[in-house]
Every structure is written in C-alpha cells, then in structure tokens.
TrEMBL record:
One term under GO cellular component: plasma membrane
Domain ABC transmembrane type-1 per the UniProt entry, residue ranges: 201-407
Gene3D superfamilies: MetI-like
Protein name: ABC transporter permease
Organism: Candidatus Dactylopiibacterium carminicum
Pfam family, one: BPD_transp_1
Family listed: Belongs to the binding-protein-dependent transport system permease family. CysTW subfamily.
Topology class, membrane: Multi-pass membrane protein
Keyword Transmembrane on entry: yes
Length: 421
C-alpha cells in the first residue's frame, strides 16, 4: 500500500510533462523566432530605406493637401454642392472667412500655386480676393466677391475649386498620360502643344527595348562561350565582364564622349582606314546613347545568362547530336529552352535599369533622346513639382511591375511544362 501511495505522485507528474510532439513544436517555434530575430534588422532596414520612400513618393502622385489646408470650410461645403448653379451664400461666406484667415500666410501661397498649375490666372484671383477681405459689413458675400472679381460669379470657377477641394486628385496621373479635366470635370485629351508625355514614354520604352535586344544579341554568345570553356579561361573572361563595375558610370560616359566626338579615336580610326571622308556624328544623338547604354548594361545581361547556362549539362547536346539531330536544331530544341530563365531574367533586369537611366541620355543625347527619368529629375530639382515627378515615377513603377508579372508567368508556365514532361 505504501508503494502504491509513493508511485501516485510520480504518475501525476508524468502526466503533466509535455509530450514529444509538444516538445518538437516548442523547439520549432523557438527556431522560427531565432530566424525572425536575425531577419528583423534587415527587414526594418528595407522597410525604412526602400519600401517606405517608394510608397511615400507614389502617394505624392495623388496627394492634394494644399487647397484643403488653406480653405477647410469652403472645401467641406463644396463636397455637397450639386454643381448645377452657383453655391449658396453660406459657401461664399465660408470662402471669405477662409481667405481672411490665411491671407498673407504660406498655406494660401501654396494653394494658389497649386491651383495655378492647372489653371493659369487662378493665383492672381486668389491673391486679389485675399487682399479684399474681410468684406464690408452689411454686404452679401456673393455680391462682394463678384465685385472683387467677376470670375466668382461663374459656375466654371467653382467647378474647378470643387474638383480640387479633395485630399486626393488624379490630375497629376492624368497629366502624365496627356489627359486633363475640362470645365465640366470630364477627362479629355491635353492640347497637342502640351501633350508630350505619351511620346516620352514611347521613347523610353522603345530605347529600353532596343538596348535590351542589343545586349541580348551580344551577351548570349559570350555567356554561352564562357559556360562551355574550361573553368580557368571562363574565370579570366568573367574578370573582364566585371571590370566595368570598377569604374564610375560618369567616367565611362565621359570616356565615350571622348571616343565618339568628331575628332575622337573612333572617327580618326575610320578615316585612317579610308572608310569615311567626313567625321560621323556619333555623339549627342541616339547613336551615342545606344552605344554607351549597351556598354554599361551588357554585364547585367551576361551574368544571369551565364549563371543559368553553367547549370545546363552538356550531355543533353551530346545526346541530341548522337541521335542524328543537326547542331543548330539541337541547340534550338534542346539547349535554348533551358536557357530561357536566364534570357528572361537578363532582359527584365536590363529593361528595368534602362527605363530609369538619366545620366547617359542627358550627357550623350540631344533633347529628343531624353527619357522619362529626365522629366522626373526636372520636376524634382527645378520646378519642385513633386506631384508630376511622382506621377511619372508611378507609371514607370507600374510598367516595371507588369514586366515582372509577365516574366513570373512565363517562368511559371515553363516550370509547369517541365514538370509535366
């Protein structure tokens, strides 16, 4: 009996001990927490230095705080305005009070400048009206404001103000696509004299496509050669591929200006060989831009191609040749499909980098070769129009995401086909 009594606490203690499954789950949670703790600093760094700035910049393309900050009461009333006739006396009174409150302050200047970007002359209207307030007592606000400027008696003026009395606006994105609002608030095409951005994006995508194809035609044979050569020789060639990374892009662009100018080494060599009589115009045009950009971006095509080709076994080609398949057909049917992930990754990388290039077209090209990044820099550094800079950046960002989605879809389909075989 005493022995039975002594074993009961031990049995109870054993029943409370964690099972093997619980111990394994606890160990797995601890392991995951350790991994998360190791990854957390890098995740925070990427969030604060990469994702947050991008999100903040994209938000500026639709952000519209100036008018609400300067005219809070008027903006709130205009959101419920039917837009058929002039606003009521309450709205006119609210406008007079808002202008009196911000007269001579930075918020009024910011709102007037913002409105004047879309409709010329509106800054003058705002400042003129702000100087006239407070209005005389005993006079209706509507009558007094129309006396200050007759444009306050036009429904189109209030339509324009109501359209901008919102914390968000699509004006910048529409302007980046050569679209704007008419007096009735409908989206229409911009005047031909001001419609430039569609052509800019066509030029940007066209130049990026040409550079990508040139890099592919030059990089594919070189990567194939490096993948089939002995390791020692391939390593030496890899050093030459990576050698341009040791030099600044600005230095390389300046070197191309020296080489391609009228009295540069290229023209002197061509004239020395008797191929030309007059110097060729190879710089400050599209030719110089293409040459320099292909030279700068070629390693970004070679590296993904080489990494994929290095993993393709030469036994597949030997087997195809031994079965009587011609060399070119063996390469096209056996080797090339396996290299497509490298082709896709290289083309995607080069195309995305090319879309965002600014220095090379700015130094080697003429005004007709400037890409979208030039206008982003222009609006950021010169006119300080962050909305337009963010809108152009947003379109480039969306194009990048679409390209990546296409690439991921193609690679996914190829992997599915490979598994099916």
């Amino acid at each position: 009996m005493s022995e039975l009594t002594a074993t009961l606490p031990a049995v109870a203690a054993g029943s409370q001990a964690p099972s093997l499954k619980q111990q394994l789950a606890r160990a797995e949670r601890i392991r995951k927490l350790k991994y998360a703790a190791l990854i957390l600093p890098l995740a925070l760094f990427l969030l604060l230095s990469f994702l947050w700035p991008i999100a903040a910049l994209l938000l500026r393309s639709v952000d519209n705080p100036e008018v609400i900050a300067a005219l809070p009461q008027t903006s709130a009333l205009l959101r419920g305005w039917d837009g058929q006739t002039l606003p009521d006396e309450t709205t006119f009174n609210a406008l007079a009070r808002d202008l009196a409150a911000v007269s001579g302050t930075p918020p009024l200047a910011a709102a007037a400048r913002r409105l004047n970007m879309e409709q010329l002359g509106f800054r003058t209207l705002m400042m003129k009206t702000a100087r006239a307030v407070p209005l005389a007592e005993g006079v209706g606000a509507r009558h007094a404001l129309v006396e200050v400027d007759e444009r306050w008696g036009e429904v189109a003026t209030w339509h324009f103000l109501a359209r901008n009395a919102s914390p968000w606006t699509a004006r910048h994105l529409l302007a980046a696509l050569d679209r704007t609002y008419d007096e009735q608030g409908r989206v229409v095409k911009t005047d031909e004299e001001q419609a430039i951005y569609i052509d800019v994006f066509k030029r940007t995508f066209g130049m990026a496509l040409v550079v990508t194809l040139c890099c592919l035609m030059l990089g594919f044979p070189l990567a194939y050669l490096m993948a089939t050569l002995p390791v020692r020789t391939a390593n030496v060639m890899m050093i030459f591929v990576l050698l341009p990374f040791w030099t600044s892009i600005l230095v390389r662009v300046a070197a191309w200006i020296v080489l391609l100018q009228s009295e540069g080494l290229v023209n002197q060599a061509l004239r020395g060989l008797g191929l030309i009589d007059q110097p060729l115009q190879l710089v400050f045009n599209s030719t110089g831009v293409y040459i320099a950009m292909v030279h700068i971006l070629l390693p970004f095509m070679i590296l993904p191609l080489y990494s994929v080709m290095k993993g393709i076994s030469p036994l597949y080609m030997r087997a195809a040749l031994s079965l009587g398949c011609p060399p070119f057909r063996s390469f096209w049917k056996v080797y090339f499909p396996q290299s497509l992930p490298g082709v896709g990754a290289g083309c995607l990388l080069v195309f995305i980098l090319c879309m965002g290039y600014y220095i090379t077209p700015a130094l080697l090209g003429s005004p007709s070769e400037q890409m979208a990044s030039y206008f982003v820099a222009f609006y950021t550094n010169q006119t300080i129009n962050w909305g337009m800079a963010a809108a152009l950046s947003t379109i480039l960002f969306i194009a990048t995401l679409l390209l990546y989605m296409v690439y991921a879809r193609l690679i996914g389909n190829q992997d599915a086909a490979a598994r099916a075989r």
